[in-house]
Write a structure and sequence with these properties.
The protein has helices at about 5-10, 15-25, 25-35, 45-65, 75-95, 105-110, 115-125, 135-150, 150-165, 170-175, 180-195. The chain is an all-alpha fold and about 220 residues long.
C-alpha cells in the first residue's frame, strides 16, 4: 500500500492505517530524536516517550496535510515530531532561546539542534574497539569537544546525513539550500571533523569518512 493510499484510508476512519503510517517512519524518527534529545533529560524522557506523544499530534494534523501536501510526507512528519520534542524540552527545561539572526528553513526550524553529547555518544561506537571500554568516557569527552569546535551548520549536516540518514535532496530541503551546496557542505564538514579527531588518543585511525549511499530517505 502506498503512502497516499494509507493516508486516504486513515482519513476515512481506519485507525490501523494511521498507526501503520506512523510506524513506517518510526525508525527514522527515533534516529532524529536520539541525536537531538537534550542529555539533561536522560532518565526522565526517552525517544519512545517522544514518539508516543507525537503520534497524537500527527493523527490530529493529518487531515490538514492531506488538504495541502506541499512537502514530502516523511519531512512533514519529521517536523511534527521535532515540534513535539522542542515542546518537551521547553516543558522540562524552560524556555529555549532562539537565534533570530539565523536563516533556516521551516523543516530545520521545527526541530531542536543536534547536540554534541548525543552525536559523540553515537560516534563513539564506530570509532572505538570493545577493548577500549575503560577509556570510553574520556574518549567520548574528546569527541564531544571536537564536535563542539565545529560550526553549528557543520554539526547539523553531519547529524542529518550520518545519524538521521537523510539523502542529499532531503538534507538540502531541511537546511534551505541547493542540493549542490548541501553536498559540498557535507564533504567539508566531514573533512573538518576528521581533522579534529586525528589527535584523540584511543581512536581507530583507519575510518573512511564517506557520504552514506544515496537512497530515498523515507518511505514517504
Amino acid at each position: 500500500m502506498t503512502i497516499p493510499e494509507m493516508i486516504e484510508r486513515g482519513l476515512a476512519g481506519d485507525a490501523q492505517a494511521i498507526s501503520e503510517l506512523f510506524d513506517l517512519h518510526r525508525a527514522q524518527l527515533r534516529r532524529m530524536i536520539g541525536a537531538r534529545l537534550d542529555q539533561r533529560l536522560q532518565g526522565r524522557l526517552d525517544p519512545s516517550d517522544v514518539l508516543q506523544e507525537s503520534f497524537i499530534d500527527f493523527a490530529q494534523a493529518l487531515p490538514s496535510y492531506a488538504q495541502n501536501p506541499d512537502a514530502p510526507f516523511h519531512l512533514w512528519l519529521r517536523c511534527i515530531v521535532g515540534r513535539k520534542l522542542r515542546a518537551l524540552h521547553r516543558q522540562h527545561l524552560g524556555t529555549e532561546k532562539r537565534d533570530a539572526k539565523r536563516d533556516v528553513s521551516i523543516y530545520q526550524d521545527a526541530v531542536p539542534e543536534a547536540n554534541s553529547a548525543s552525536l559523540a555518544g553515537q560516534l563513539l561506537g564506530k570509532l572505538t574497539t570493545p577493548s577500549q571500554a575503560l577509556q570510553r568516557a574520556e574518549i567520548q569527552l574528546h569527541i564531544q569537544n571536537a564536535i563542539c569546535d565545529l560550526d553549528p551548520e557543520d554539526r547539523e549536516i553531519i547529524s542529518l546525513r550520518h545519524y538521521e540518514q537523510l539523502n542529499n535532496r532531503d538534507t538540502a530541503a531541511v537546511l534551505g539550500m541547493s542540493e549542490a551546496a548541501a553536498s559540498i557542505r557535507f564533504i567539508r564538514a566531514l573533512r573538518r571533523l576528521k581533522d579534529r579527531l586525528k589527535g584523540i588518543p584511543g581512536l581507530l585511525t583507519d575510518i573512511e569518512w564517506t557520504a552514506p549511499a544515496e537512497k530515498t530517505s523515507g518511505p514517504g
